[in-house]
Design goal:
CATH architecture of the largest domain: 3-Layer(aba) Sandwich
Number of domains: 4
CATH class of the largest domain: Alpha Beta
Number of helices: 11
Structural class: alpha/beta
Radius of gyration: 63 Å
CATH superfamily of the largest domain: Dehydroquinase, class II
Strand order of the largest sheet: 1-2-3-5-4
Oligomer: single chain
């Protein structure tokens, strides 16, 4: 009779058979019973409509996982079958996990984007304003790529007043995300120590999604979000969007574009300065002219109301009054002289001596002295002398021709 096997021996034989027979499996299923252990290992199950199998991914492989596993997600697993002999349980030892139907990087990108959006990393209200005239631009990028040379050329041509400081950084491959984080923190620290108007540009030239992946890492997003200096994300080409673009204060389509949007054009500033100077000179001339006219007006007003002008006005008034007085006096004197002459003539004409002269009488009509040539037929006239008065009626009048 055959000797019985111990439980341990049976489990060892089963383990040997399974691990030898199923040393490489490629299986698709839905994740359930997911646990991220503090050790870094991931424990879960995958299932279909009829059965399920336990899975484990140890920390060594889990650290390269680009996306986060979620319950209900459908995945494709590469690995092998192993048996945990103390319990007689077999499980799938996962070496590589890919999302079913979509790339791992694409899924990881969407997962992190959603997570950071919920945390408020993309809110426009917290974005920092770029200084209008930056003094120093810290560039966190590779010192061997074409991006830094393009940025230098654009800055030299566009705004040579600003200083560019390169923080040499790995931008792809192993250790790139940690290098980018160190570069951001160093640039932010330098900017705070100098206390000037600084900007940090984080980026690199174009490449595949794998080449740009370091800028999709969460620790890079955290470093950008916590920095106190304004940060511009300039990764790849215009159509490339990475997580750092959404977290940064400004997104540039290319590294060269990052310089264009962070510094002014010195030629435009020169033209603007000329315009301001011309406007200033024109306004200054206008102000000086207005002040000059005001001074002239004030001086003229002062002269018009000065004591001298008042004395001149009074003197002119006195002279005018004197002239009016003299003119009125002479006119009045003339009138009086004429009256006197008329009285004198009347006196001479009506003097008693002339009236009493033999052969002469005064001819009157209605008590008024008249000329004989004015007498008409039938007029009643009076002939007067100093001694008698005779009333007569004119019965004939004859004009004596010379």
């Amino acid at each position: 009779m055959q000797s019985p096997l111990s439980v341990s021996s049976l489990n060892e034989q089963i383990k040997s058979v399974l691990e030898t027979t199923l040393s490489s499996v490629y299986v698709e299923g839905e994740i359930s019973n997911l646990t991220y252990h503090s050790s870094g290992h991931i424990y879960f199950s995958i299932k279909d409509s009829k059965s399920n199998i336990s899975c484990v991914m140890f920390r060594g492989n889990a650290q390269y996982l680009k996306f986060r596993l979620e319950v209900g997600a459908k995945v494709v697993i590469s690995g092998n079958i192993t048996v945990y002999t103390p319990r007689g349980n077999y499980q799938l030892l996962c070496q590589k996990i890919e999302p079913s139907g979509v790339g791992a990087l694409a899924l990881a990108y969407e997962q992190l984007k959603t997570k950071l959006q919920i945390k408020g990393y993309f809110d426009q209200s917290i974005k920092k304003q770029l200084p209008k005239f930056p003094n120093i631009i810290y560039v966190v990028t590779s010192n061997t790529g074409a991006a830094i040379e393009d940025m230098k050329k654009v800055l030299t041509h566009r705004y040579p007043l600003a200083k560019m400081i390169l923080i040499p950084t790995l931008v792809q491959g192993e250790g790139a995300k940690e290098s980018i984080v160190r570069g951001i923190k160093k640039a932010d620290q330098l900017a705070q120590n100098i206390h000037n108007k600084s900007i940090i540009i984080v980026g690199r030239g174009g490449g595949s999604i794998e080449d740009l992946w370091a800028f999709n890492e969460e620790i890079v997003a955290d470093a950008i979000f916590t920095a106190t200096t304004p940060i511009v994300s300039a990764v790849g080409h215009e159509n490339d969007f990475v997580i750092s673009d959404f977290v940064a204060d400004i997104r540039a389509s290319t590294p060269s574009n990052a310089i264009e949007i962070t510094v002014p054009d010195i030629n435009e500033l020169r033209m603007y300065a000329d315009t301001i100077l011309n406007d200033f000179n024109q306004k200054l001339k206008t102000i000086l002219y207005q002040k000059e006219q005001y001074i002239k007006h004030t001086k003229s007003s002062f002269e018009q109301h000065s004591l001298k002008k008042r004395f001149e006005f009074v003197q002119a008034t006195i002279s005018q009054l004197q002239q009016q007085f003299n003119s009125t006096y002479l006119q009045t004197l003339k009138v009086k002289k004429d009256d006197l002459n008329r009285l004198q003539n009347s006196f001479f004409i009506n003097s008693p001596e002339k009236k009493d002269k033999k052969g002469f009488v005064q001819l009157t009509k209605d008590n008024k002295i008249i000329d004989i040539s004015n007498i008409k037929l039938k007029d009643v006239i009076t002939l007067e002398s100093s001694k008698c008065t005779v009333e007569c009626e004119v019965i004939n009048k004859k004009v004596i021709k010379a």
